[in-house]
Amino acid sequence: MIRFPLPVRVLGFLTACVGLAGPVAWGGEVFHAQGELAGEVTAVGARLQSRLTAVAGLDESGDVPGAVGRACFEWSAAADFSGAQRTPWMPAEAAQDFIVRAEITGLKPGTVYHYRLVFGGDEAGAKPGPAREFRTLPAAGDAAARVSFCMGSCMNYYPFMSGETNGGGPATATAEDKKLGYPVFASMLALKPDFFIGTGDIVYYDQPAASAARTLPELRRKWHEQFRLPRLVDFFARTPAFWSKDDHDFRFNDADLSGPKLPAPATGIEIFREQMPVHPAGDRTTPTYRTHRIHHDVQLWFTEGRDFRSPNNMPDGPEKSLWGPVQREWLQRTLKESDAAWKIIITPTPMVGPDDAKKKDNHVNLAGFRHEADAFFDWAKTSGTGTLLTFCGDRHWQYHSIHPSGVEEFSCGALNDENSRMGVPPGSEKGTDPDSLIKQPFTHARPTGGFLHVTVDQDEKAKPRLHIEFRDDRGALLYEVTRSATR
To answer: 0.85 cut: is pTM over it?
Structure first.
């Protein structure tokens, strides 16, 4: 078995040549078993992605092998594809895991677009796939627009399929669920969000521990098995997404950039870029932290928590950083530049908590990166940045917490029941807030999978309104908060 470190492009070539990823269709019928993804949607553009496959689902080895071929996307504002435009044809090759990705631009704000993959072994035999759709964001000045999104994290395939829970939550997946995928995606689809935010741990390379993924075929297989599930295919056929990574879809639990354990940091960084439509195909340099103005009154900041961090074991202090100095300066500068009524930091790990006292992986942990978080909250309180919120993933329980500085944090919890657990309350001796300095208006009463559902619009007096709902994985409303602002 070939193991890292080798450049991903070299390993992709070897995979195709010696069959490390299973059978590859060099001829015959071609499929797209993982459906399509639309990513980084703006008011005027989107990034479209698919993967050509040799089979329509899992093969006998439990993977979805790729297929060599050619593909393009066609799109139109009309459901019948009248007046459709097409991207250039793209090759699906082993070096990029048979993934094709394209940019489309020049779109109209607040408009539903229909798109589909046109694919085959060659252009002459290409055929169109099913119609998919997405809505562009509203124009920046459209204060009356309504935008909604769902946010989720910690989607753990192994406990869902095996029933061996990860943290004490219930095992509720039925045989039908295991065929169709996580029930939460049907629940979110019923709400018809404008987009989804995945805040990390989209796959778990290190579970089950006995067969943790380390080689390139093993890492890619985690993405293949996850995104071929029918409920995910259906959800993303209608819902564009913004993605971040965390520890489990980077290397392993609480991973930083140190140590020889595989997968290597560079591999984890590159595979995420390969599998998720965050940047154009082949872009290996643009940072994954970025900001999007999704509405006249709301701007989102997506922070990167793995690529630039100091070692977890480094003593905490001014020199220790989870973000790295360049990202931190960018975050503070762009927050001050924004005039949005609500400025929301989408962070893969918590900044308020509380969390387990024994950890040292995030901004909340006492032996982690608390100094940087405290300095940031002090800066935010005195810098005139306006109303700042944090929405976090990583923690497997839902909560609404308020930092002593006044910053509110909303944790989306885990997407599936089997990966959920009870949280750590303020005042716990086993937590990071033993003195109960944090206020916590809500945490779930029992372990459950779930997600955040967020809506921004305006009330009957045309005042900006932000509505945040916590829902369980079956869609039941658990808690809600409404905030108003003035322009």
So the answer is: yes
